[in-house]
Specification:
The complex is a heterodimer. Chain A is an all-alpha fold. Chain A contains twelve helices and no strands. Chain A has a single domain, classed as MetI-like fold. In chain A, helix 4 runs parallel beside helix 12. Chain B contains eleven helices and twelve strands. Chain B is of the alpha/beta class. Chain B starts with a strand and ends with a helix. Classes of the chains: A mainly alpha, B alpha/beta. At the A-B interface, helix 8 and helix 9 of A face helix 3 of B.
Chain lengths: ~290, ~325
């Protein structure tokens, strides 16, 4: 009841306040922001130019001058990880945003309206799910060509069915609630009901799915880069760096380790922030 | 009589896999401005469906609803929205009928936002404060969420929402059955005060006869979608003529152990409302049922001025009703 005495509280300010009260989520959020900042300003932060070769110093282990060591062409791995993060994260975030927005809208429509609308949407997602995700991504990518946006599109499209299914299920469970009928009795339009009542109440698992989806997307992008359909080699990208380091993995660990660690850390942080966000968005949850 | 609402032969059928479900069948009544009509019946008898049809949450299969002199049985979207300002609904379970993610302020403001009643944020807040004051929620609850409040306060929010647009007619769908008895009385008193102060008209749906006695001017008893009896509240409690009504009344607990009375006990199962057989729908459970009851559906007749009964035996049972009256006192 302590909360109720507080004066003005916006819905989002409230979410933020609850997020700040969750220490794990707060620390993860700060760390994630730092990583994102470093990646965005990677050209300024990076100690070397990412594609500057130094053939006299190939395969050097981490040292003071090269904290992450250098790769097979003598390029500084730290700089490449920083710059590579730009492509990886940008493409991952774009693709997940695409699949989450399109998938959730379709899923909510399917769950809310039911009937023929639901049938068509679900059958389409079933067809998409019948094709192996990676094969679909390869096909789309091959058809559209390489490049940042096309890769994001290819990966985003393949992930739409997951979001459709999830959002439909959540919408169905929200739909049974009387407050939707109460809103209708107040004169609320269908659009308002979906946006203001169905979405916020059905969104929590989608948020978690988004944070998990970023991880899957990074892996899929690296997979595409690996077969030569994602981002072309001169541009660094975490997945393709992993792929190229794979050859030397036995004798020279830094080439695979550092991009791998970058992926893992970023993913964990995304997941923790996502968990925190989901909890913060639920006013019923109390500590 | 200044009728605000007139319902004629209202029907609602649901098509379900096993056939047609007659949820509401041939309901007719007139409701005068400022009065309360209590609708009583057991669960599943179609009383909530009736309420939902009246406020336009469901469409009627057949029949007519005349509200403030206009036929509103089938209206266009824009008209329906305009009608929402005139007729509102209070729901049974305040916890499930309030969005758990919105606080008191946002919940009460919702109808005001939809109809853009208040042009500025300050006015909106002012209006919400007035409404909260009117239904008796203190101001520091303004930013509390439904799960932080008790049932009575939640239901007060539901009432504030319904009153936000200043409607003339309210459908109260079991507004107190989810509440504790002590809070029931508070909420009922609030509803009565509001009715007196603002000239509201209520359709009060309930399965609790002691509640309906407290608040209604007229009572309509429903059984399996049909009207079995309608009379003024006093008259119905004094001389119930339909055996079903008699059974219901005799089931009201009396807080006196020395009180002896004749119980009318209903046996048997409710017959299915799907693909109905001919005859009186109550016949299977009626202690007085005869052959005629099982073959011919009784018509609703006005046996005394203002007292309608649908029973072949009502006239013969009247003596019974008188006997009931004696024992009940």
């Amino acid at each position: 009841m302590k909360q109720t005495k507080k004066k003005k509280r916006g819905q989002w300010r409230d979410v933020f306040r609850r997020l700040c009260a969750n220490r794990v989520a707060l620390v993860s959020l700060i760390l994630l922001c730092l990583i994102l900042l470093a990646i965005v300003f990677s050209e300024q932060v990076a100690p070397y130019v990412y594609n500057q070769r130094d053939l006299d110093a190939t395969f050097t282990f981490p040292s003071l001058s090269h904290p992450f060591g250098t790769d097979n062409l003598g390029r500084d791995i730290l700089s490449r990880v920083l710059v590579g993060g730009r492509v990886s994260l940008l493409v991952a975030v774009l693709s997940v945003a695409l699949s989450a927005v399109v998938g959730s809208l379709l899923g909510a429509a399917a769950g809310y309206f039911g009937g023929r609308c639901e049938f068509i949407i679900l059958k389409c997602t079933d067809i998409m799910m019948a094709i192996p995700a990676f094969l679909l991504a390869v096909t789309v990518s091959a058809a559209l060509g390489t490049g940042l946006l096309n890769t994001a599109l290819a990966v985003g499209l393949t992930n739409i069915p997951r979001f459709v299914r999830l959002m439909r299920a959540e919408t169905l469970s929200v739909k049974g609630n009387e407050y939707l009928e109460a809103a209708r009795a107040c004169g609320a339009s269908e659009v308002r009901i979906i946006l203001k009542h169905v979405f916020p109440n059905a969104l929590s698992s989608t948020i978690v799915n988004v944070t998990l989806g970023i991880g899957t997307a990074i892996l899929q992008i690296s997979g595409l880069s690996f077969v030569g359909l994602g981002v072309r080699p001169p541009t660094p990208e975490w997945g393709s760096m992993l792929a190229s380091g794979r050859t030397y993995m036995r004798d020279f660990w830094p080439m695979v380790t550092f991009p791998g660690v970058a992926i893992v850390v970023t993913l964990i942080l995304f997941n923790l922030v996502g968990d925190g966000l989901r909890d913060a968005m639920d006013p019923k949850l109390k500590r | 009589m200044n009728a605000i609402l007139e319902v004629r032969n209202l029907k609602k059928n649901f098509d379900i896999p096993g056939g047609t479900l007659h949820a509401v069948d041939q309901i007719s009544f007139t409701l005068a401005k400022g009065k309360t009509l209590g609708v009583v019946g057991e669960s599943g008898c179609g009383k909530s469906t009736l309420g939902r049809i009246l406020v336009g949450l469901l469409d009627a299969t057949d029949g007519q609803i005349i509200f403030q002199g206009r036929d509103i049985t089938r209206v266009k979207k824009a008209q329906r929205k305009a009608l929402r300002r005139e007729m509102q609904m209070i729901f049974q379970d305040p916890l499930s009928s309030l969005d758990p993610r919105l606080c008191t302020m946002e919940l009460i403001a919702e109808p005001l936002e939809i109809f853009k009643v208040c042009p500025t944020r300050a006015e909106l807040e002012q209006r919400v404060r007035e409404l909260m004051d009117m239904v008796g929620i203190s101001e520091h609850m303004m930013y509390a969420y439904p799960h932080e409040l008790d049932g009575g306060r939640r239901q007060r929010i539901g009432i504030a929402r319904a009153l936000a647009l200043d409607p003339a007619f309210l459908v109260c769908d079991e507004p107190v059955s989810a509440l504790d008895v002590s809070i029931q009385a508070q909420v009922l008193n609030l509803l009565r005060e509001l009715q007196r102060a603002r000239g509201l008209t209520y359709l009060f749906i309930t399965h609790d006869l002691s509640v309906v006695k407290h608040i209604s001017d007229d009572i309509l008893v429903m059984y399996m979608g049909q009207m079995v009896e309608e009379a003024s509240s006093k008259e119905l409690f004094r001389t119930p003529m339909h055996p079903y009504t008699q059974g219901l009344l005799s089931a009201i607990p009396v807080p006196n152990i020395h009180h002896k009375r004749r119980r009318v006990i209903m046996e048997g199962e409710i017959t299915s409302p799907v693909n109905l057989k001919p005859g009186c729908r109550f016949a299977a459970r009626c202690p007085h049922a005869c052959n005629r009851c099982r073959q011919e559906q009784p018509a609703l007749l006005e046996l005394e001025p203002g007292h309608f009964v649908a029973c072949h035996l009502a006239l013969e049972l009247r003596g019974d009703a008188a006997a009931y009256e004696n024992t009940a006192q």
